[in-house]
Each structure stands twice: as C-alpha cells, then as structure tokens.
Design goal:
With about 150 residues, the chain is mainly beta. The chain has a single domain, classed as Alpha-Beta Complex (glutathione-dependent formaldehyde- activating enzyme (gfa)). It is built from three helices and ten strands; from the N terminus they run αβββαβαββββββ. It has helices at about 5, 35-45, 65-70, and strands at about 10-15, 20, 30-35, 50-55, 70-75, 80-85, 95-100, 110, 115, 125. The strands form two sheets. The protein has a seven-stranded mixed β-sheet with strand order 5-6-7-8-4-3-10. The chain has a three-stranded antiparallel β-sheet with strand order 2-1-9, with no helix packed on it. The radius of gyration is 15 Å and the shape is globular. The chain starts with a helix and ends in a 24-residue tail after the last strand. The relative contact order is 0.22. Belongs to the Gfa family.
C-alpha cells in the first residue's frame, strides 16, 4: 500500500447504501470487540465490533447526512448517555458517540466495524468479557470490563 493510500479515509456504508461517507481519519485509533449485553442485542451476535476514530470534522453532522440518519439515545453504565446513529432506510447501526454525565461528548466516535469498508481487523481488543457467551483464546488481549485507557 502506498503512503498516499494509507492517508486516505476509509468509507462507512450502511447495508442498503443510502448512507455512505468517509471516516473522520484514515485509520482508527483502536478496535474493540465488545461482549456487553447491549452490544450482543444491538448486533444480534456474540459481540459487537467498533472502530474508534477521532471525531474530527464529522460533528456537527452535515445536514444531508443528518437527514438520512435516525438517532437512538440510551444511558451508559457510567451515568452518561450514548447517541446511536442508524440508517433510516435499512436500520443498520453505523456509529455511536458517548456523552459524559454533563452531556459533553467524547472526542471520539465508535463506528461499527462491519460498516467500514477496508477496515484492518487485526489487533482488536476484547472488552466486557464478563458478559461473553463464547470462549476467546487467552493470548488475545481482553478485559473483564474496559482497558485502563477507556476509564
């Protein structure tokens, strides 16, 4: 891969293609495979995968993008909230943004891994293993809840 290619953003795309836009940066800062019960329900699977990006110029959302997205907000374990964005046409969850107890958003956005075209899946960290419904090899990085960097 040339250095020019590695500096280009990836593409976020919903299942039906109604929503498609570039990632805020060329690479995620982290990749998490979350085994919490919320991610299990949201993904209808054993875990959900999120690629973490600095939110950059994604927010405020461009009017045309905002018009194609639905928003579901839910409480978090830390007494904050999570804004969950999904395609209004097909319902695919695309990304979420966590807000602290004061309502201030984190400077990052969690993009659903399966919606990121060209994502490098290597090096993912398994989190919320306390709720895992499958065994993960011990040599893979994993945490009972979240790694110290997320606290």
């Amino acid at each position: 891969m040339s250095s020019t290619q590695s500096e280009n953003p990836l593409r976020i795309r919903c299942q039906c293609g109604t929503v498609s836009f570039p990632t805020p940066t060329a690479k995620p800062t982290a990749l998490y495979h979350c085994h919490c019960t919320e991610c299990q329900r949201q993904s209808a699977s054993a875990f959900g995968t999120s690629a973490i990006f600095v939110s950059g110029n994604l927010f405020p959302l461009a009017p045309d993008l905002k018009a194609r997205l639905g928003l579901y907000t839910r409480p978090t374990d830390s007494s904050g909230s999570m804004d969950c964005y999904f395609c209004r046409a097909c319902g695919s969850r695309l990304f979420h943004r966590i807000r602290d107890t004061s309502g201030a958003p984190r400077p990052t956005v969690s993009v659903k891994g399966g919606c990121v075209e060209g994502l490098d899946w290597s090096g993912g960290v398994h989190i919320y293993m306390r709720s895992a419904v499958m065994k993960i090899p011990g040599e893979w990085e994993q945490y009972e809840t979240v790694p110290p960097i997320m606290k």
